[in-house]
Design brief:
Radius of gyration: 17 Å
Number of helices: 7
Structural class: alpha+beta
Order of helices and strands: EEHEHEHEHEEEEHHEH
Strand content: 15-25%
CATH class: Alpha Beta
Length: about 230
């Protein structure tokens, strides 16, 4: 709710429905989770989510989404968790399934995701970039050179981890790079492998009000096609 780039973002409406509800519905459509819960420190979000039939859990204030998810996972006694950020209302279902599958196959690693990086986003600080080598993350940045010497992808707002990895994260202090770049996996980069699942689909995450309009147009076109069919 306190996003500096888009205040009250989770409750911004897309085609008449709060964004967080669209994201929860996408998670349900993936049909690969035993439990779907919205972790939030906002009474308002908690109320909206429960009102529409989804589970929610209230947490304390936290510096990152992963810290918040860890509190929720501990309260629910969960061993493996997929952390989907609430601003991914059009998350690729196959990507969700792949992330869920890989944390079961490789529980000692973090799992995250990436998609192709558009050249016009090289200096867009709203888009996190991830450098990948042999399917594992090497670095994360918000800005890269216009002529990078290494290959970069667009990082997606999704993680998966085991209870052991979550405890390690919560007991580690925030690093200088994590604070400077505002990218949470930098806290464990180099300590624990971060496996990257690639998706050819471009990202439709909502970072700004302009992104919201783009997502709404996609949803309306999709709904129109369904009506025509």
């Amino acid at each position: 709710m306190e996003s500096t780039r888009f205040p009250n973002k989770p409750l911004a409406k897309i085609d008449g429905k709060e964004m967080v509800l669209h994201t929860l519905e996408r998670a349900a459509l993936a049909s690969c989770f035993d439990l779907i819960v919205c972790a939030t420190n906002s009474e308002e979000i908690y109320s909206v989510v429960q009102k529409h039939g989804f589970e929610a859990i209230l947490t304390r204030d936290h510096p990152t989404g992963t810290d918040r998810v860890i509190e929720a996972a501990q309260k629910l006694n969960l061993d493996l968790v997929v952390n989907l950020q609430g601003d991914e209302p059009l998350i690729d279902l196959d990507l969700l399934r792949a992330v869920a599958k890989n944390i079961q196959l490789e529980p000692t690693s973090w799992i995250t995701a990436a998609t192709p990086l558009l050249r016009e986003d090289y200096n867009n600080t709203n888009v996190v970039k991830i450098q990948v080598q042999n399917n594992y993350a090497q670095d994360f940045k918000r800005q890269i050179s216009s002529n990078p010497t290494k290959s970069w992808l667009e990082h997606r707002g999704i993680y998966a981890y085991s209870s052991v990895a979550m405890q390690e994260f919560s007991h580690s202090p925030q690093t200088k790079d994590e604070l400077l770049r505002s990218i949470e996996p930098l806290r464990v980069l180099g300590k624990r492998p971060i496996k990257v699942i690639f998706s050819p689909s471009t990202s439709m995450a909502v970072d700004t009000p302009t992104d919201l309009l783009l997502v709404e147009n996609v949803l309306k076109k999709s709904k129109h096609k369904m009506v025509l069919q």
